[in-house]
Amino acid sequence: MNKLRRRAAGFLLLETMIGVLVFAIGVLALARCVEQCINVESAKAWDERARVALENRMAEVEAGAVFFDTKKEEKLKGMFDGITLVQSRVPLRLMDENKKELAGLFEIQLEALWRESGGKQSKVLTFYVFQKR
């Protein structure tokens, strides 16, 4: 009977060790999921900040507050710290029905660049604007 008790105690120890192993694997998998959730939220926050920076600059250009002739690169500050805004303007060579060039039409391209844990990220906004010279 003593031998039977030792075998049962040994089996109970083995069962407990397997249970702890399964629990540890579950905890590690859960920790990996939480890490991925944090990374996604961080990427979402950066993307949102870049979108707002692009929208703000687009509004400034459309209102005529910002005018630029050449490609320009600017490191943003404040809420947008860490984002670099690259802006360029290309004149559109369009003709009217009388084959006369339409002056003052431009294609504006804004690009927000930032570094994240996964590497370089960017977001681009292209729009058209009429600006008198």
Keywords:
4 strands, 1 helix, 133 residues, single chain
Query: Helix/strand/pairing class, anyone?
Result: alpha+beta
**Shape, per Cα inertia axes:** rod-shaped
Major pleated sheet: 4 strands, antiparallel
Tell me which oligomeric state these chains represent: single chain
Number of helices: 1
**Proportion of strand residues:** 25-35%
| Percentage of residues assigned to helices | 40-55%
Count of discrete structural domains: 1
The counted number of beta strands is: 4
Structure report:
The protein has one domain (2-130). It has one helix and four strands; from the N terminus they run αββββ. Strands 1-2-3-4 form a four-stranded antiparallel beta sheet, with helices on one face. A hairpin with a 2-residue loop joins β3 and β4. It is α+β, with helices and mostly antiparallel strands and 133 residues long. It has one helix at 2-63; strands at residues 72-75, 84-91, 105-116, 119-130. The longest helix is centred in the N-terminal third of the chain and has 62 residues, at 2-63. The protein is rod-shaped. The model has no long low-confidence stretch (mean pLDDT 88). It is 47% helix and 27% strand.
